[in-house]
Amino acid sequence: xxxxxxxxxxxxxxxxxxxxxxxxxxxxxxxxxxxxxxxxxxxxxxxxxxxxxxxxxxxxxxxxxxxxxxxxxxxxxxxx
Length: 80
Description:
mainly alpha, rod-shaped
């Protein structure tokens, strides 16, 4: 049969165990948050780099297309 002292000791043991496990989970979550933030920053930087490169490609393609449009217009004018 359990005495009041045994029950009290058991409650303290359970409370300490739960507190330790919760503290450990908080530490793990904090570590994961730091790692995830770092990965998000890296991904954001890579997206910015890709965006800049695509902008350069789009500008060059647009200029190339404009040049072709002007040349075609000149050829059409000469043909008429």
